[in-house]
Write a structure and sequence with these properties.
Strand content: 15-25%
Structural class: alpha/beta
Mean pLDDT: 94
Distance between the termini: 51 Å
Radius of gyration: 20 Å
Shape: globular
CATH architecture: Alpha-Beta Barrel
Bound molecules: SN-glycerol-3-phosphate
Largest sheet: 8 strands, parallel, barrel
Order of helices and strands: EHEHHEHEHEHEHHEHEHH
Number of domains: 1
Strand order of the largest sheet: 1-2-3-4-5-6-7-8
CATH topology: TIM Barrel
CATH class: Alpha Beta
């Protein structure tokens, strides 16, 4: 279906964020020029074993783009207090808020004061519509967790894309809970603005056996020429 709303920048390309709090993985990917941002969540922070404030500050310094840091509070006032502290850590912090009534209220506040937000744990188009109405910068629909219960996570991305384009919402669709290289392809085909990808899946995007075998053949055949370019 042709998009009704011309995107502000037709050159908008799907952005790749990495879904991890492991600074080593982030640094390696940042060097490739492929990294557009980072998302974290309390489970990834726990897995890193690191101090939250310290590791977010380090990730922000290492990342050229937005870094999502999730609040731990579940009440609006607590989310605002924590999110305000996180936003002060670095200019590229994006405050991550759960899609609850309290999270939407907190998102409204951050929209008013100009702090970027990523509304997370989204599982329906209605939830995504509410997040856009309160000005979320990003919405994170969890594709993999829907697939895990035999629902169609990618269908949700397509629904949200249509709704956002119908009304010209600026909220960016950040496809999350990505489980495979196919998820990345399908998210791009569905018009997702961003995909946040586990490091293991990013490496799957690059590798193909025919690329490997083709390069091996080129190297072997070049050796037969006995020539050197330099
Ligand atoms: O970080 C948000 C999302 O990507 C988490 O995905 O793998 O825990 O379902 P997952």
């Amino acid at each position: 279906m042709k998009r009704r709303v011309a995107r502000s920048n037709l050159g908008n390309i799907v952005k790749f964020f990495v879904d991890t709090a492991e600074i080593k993985e982030i640094l390696e990917l940042a060097e490739t020029g492929l990294l557009d941002g980072v998302t974290t969540n309390p489970s990834l922070i726990a897995k890193s074993g690191r101090d939250f404030i310290e590791v977010i500050s380090e990730i922000c310094a290492a990342t050229p783009g937005p870094v999502s840091a999730e609040v731990s509070a579940t009440d609006t006032d607590g989310m605002i207090a924590e999110g305000t502290k996180l936003a002060a850590l670095a200019d590229n912090v994006v405050v991550k808020l759960p899609l609850t009534m309290d999270g939407l209220r907190a998102c409204s506040h951050f929209t008013k004061v100009g702090v970027k937000t990523n509304v997370t744990l989204c599982f329906t188009a209605n939830q995504a519509l509410l997040a856009a109405k309160v000005g979320a910068t990003y919405i994170s629909p969890f594709v993999g967790r829907l697939d895990d219960i035999n629902l169609d996570g990618m269908d949700l991305i397509a629904q949200i894309r249509r709704i956002y384009d119908n009304f010209g919402f600026d909220t960016q669709i950040l496809s999350a809970s990505i489980r495979s290289a196919n998820h990345v392809t399908e998210a791009a085909l569905a018009g997702s603005d961003v995909a946040t990808i586990p490091p293991s899946v990013i490496h799957q995007l690059i590798a193909h056996p025919l690329t490997t075998s083709g390069l091996d053949k080129f190297v072997a055949d070049w050796k037969l020429t006995g020539q050197s370019i330099l």
